[in-house]
Amino acid sequence: MTVARQSLGTLMRLGGAVFCAAWGVAIVLFPFYKGLPIGLVPIALGAVLGAVVAVFRHRVTSLLMRPSSVPFAVAISAAAFMLRAAAALHFPLEPANDHAMFYQLAANVAAGQGYTKSTGPTAFFPPGLPLLLAAIFWVVGTSVWVAKALGLALSALVVPVSYWFARKVGPEEEARWTTLIVAAFPTLVVYGATIGYESLLSLLVLGWAVLTQSVARTASGGPLTAVALGIVNGLAALVKPVALLLPVLSAMSWIGRLRLKQVVLLSAVSAVVMLAVILPWTLRNKMTLGHPVLISTNGGFVLYSANHDGSRGIATPVRSLPGEHDEVSRDRIRGQAAVRWILDNPSAFLQLMVPKAAYGWGTTSSIMSFVSYDRMPPREEDVWKALLNVGWGAFFLWCAAAAWSTRVWARPALTPALLFTLYIFAVHLVYEALSRHHVTLLPVLAVTAAAWLSRDSRPASERVHV
């Protein structure tokens, strides 16, 4: 087991270095894909700001460690909530892009019309967030303000949960730096003004990672914890089907820590429970759509959108294909067409991974397509995009420094969450990629940044003990 654990640690550290290298290349390439090389300026300014913060990181650590844990968590969570509330009040109220559809689906459910759109029953969007929103609408009434309040609450809740998670996987200094980053990071503050699913998924993923680690630590409580793990897995999959492989990631993180028999048994338990959580929705799809769609009908749609002749690696409008007559057949036919295209054009497919990485990780400013959606004055929107990328440049510097100069990526307690990070990065080298797809991962990456920022590299005689 020790050899297997060491090998996994080595692979994880290598994975972290490769991931951060790809992230850095994406940052450099993105402005050129957009035809705006000047976009590198806010990234460079962010890197400089990140370096300045690093110079004073020992002093900041001392300040962060002064209050006890409860006052610290309450104060920083309150500050984070106020920042997000200010963003929600500043940016356009009406949800835009996919978020407008989430709102409408929730409103239809609350009104007794079912999970429907104008053409009838649908399963195009995963039901997790819309059904949660519908339940709240049913209690307090349907309102855009109620929807925004849910988005704000979920985004703010990520802050104390990140503190709890970071304390589970590392020392207190790291946990406090993590919480500070998550509370103040511009991307998370601005995106908190939306009703996106990312905050909800982030909460579930952090819970999944802690439960996965708990199974590895507690042999006697393993089966019961595996059941809880399966419930969280199922809820996460209903929010975003990408979570369907969470049992596999749990099993990978248990390598070298549990016997093979335990790994297989506990993985099977969590997978069966996950499927049991999803099953009612699948049956609903069978009854309303005529087909047992597991969760949603957008997997093949999105895959083909990003993989066909003329694709730029992001969502690209395409004509209907022969045989499409409803969303189920459309999803199946486009998924099959995408797979054929990938197999017939392996070189073009591999080349498309570069712009996909660039659009997903080269910037964080494209979240404005869900926040503003061109409803703000262009100059003001450009200012916000620049500010977001200043934060992005600083964050990248800290995460890269951590991957290359610490062993945080090899830390067993953090392995599940980091495996999920690598998994999502890989998924969006195949499917379409946008900035919002990295929003869920920011609290996990904040832990790695905190591992470097909180590290005291001064001589022992110069250290301040608090």
Describe this structure in words.
The protein has 466 residues and is an all-alpha fold. The protein has one domain (2-454). Helix content is 70%, strand content 1%. The chain is built from 20 helices and two strands. The chain has helices spanning 2-33, 40-55, 57-64, 69-90, 98-110, 128-140, 144-169, 172-184, 186-191, 198-217, 222-239, 246-254, 260-289, 299-305, 327-344, 346-361, 368-371, 378-405, 415-427, 442-453; strands spanning 116-117, 120-121. It has a two-stranded antiparallel sheet with strand order 1-2. Strand 1 (116-117) and strand 2 form a beta hairpin. Helix 12 (246-254) packs across helix 19. The radius of gyration is 22 Å and the shape is globular. The chain starts with a helix and ends in a 13-residue tail after the last helix. The relative contact order is 0.16.
